[in-house]
Design goal:
The protein is mainly alpha-helical. The protein contains four helices and two strands; from the N terminus they run ββαααα. β1 and β2 form a beta hairpin. The longest helix has 13 residues. It is elongated and about 85 Å long.
Length: about 80
């Protein structure tokens, strides 16, 4: 029975330029924590995007108006009035 030893292997494009690498799992695990996390959304940018577009979102505005109308009586009773 022969044992295969995986070594680092470069992946090249049609012109021979290196475009990727296959690593043994041991090596990958050593560098994994330093790799950029792709696919993780930029939460702050997403929040800003949603806030910017909320004013033109008809469903959001309808929900907002309904909520504000529902609480108008409570709000008027809760807040202190000027004397």
């Amino acid at each position: 029975m022969s044992t295969s030893i995986l070594k680092r292997q470069l992946i090249t494009d049609a012109e021979g330029n290196p475009i990727g690498v296959i690593l043994p799992m041991e090596e990958y695990l050593m560098i994994e924590r330093n790799l950029p996390k792709e696919g993780v959304p930029d939460i702050q940018a997403e929040k800003l995007y949603r806030m910017k577009h909320a004013a033109t979102d008809t469903l959001f505005m309808a929900d907002l108006n309904e909520t504000m109308n529902s609480f108008s009586t409570v709000d008027s009773e809760w807040w202190e009035h000027e004397t």
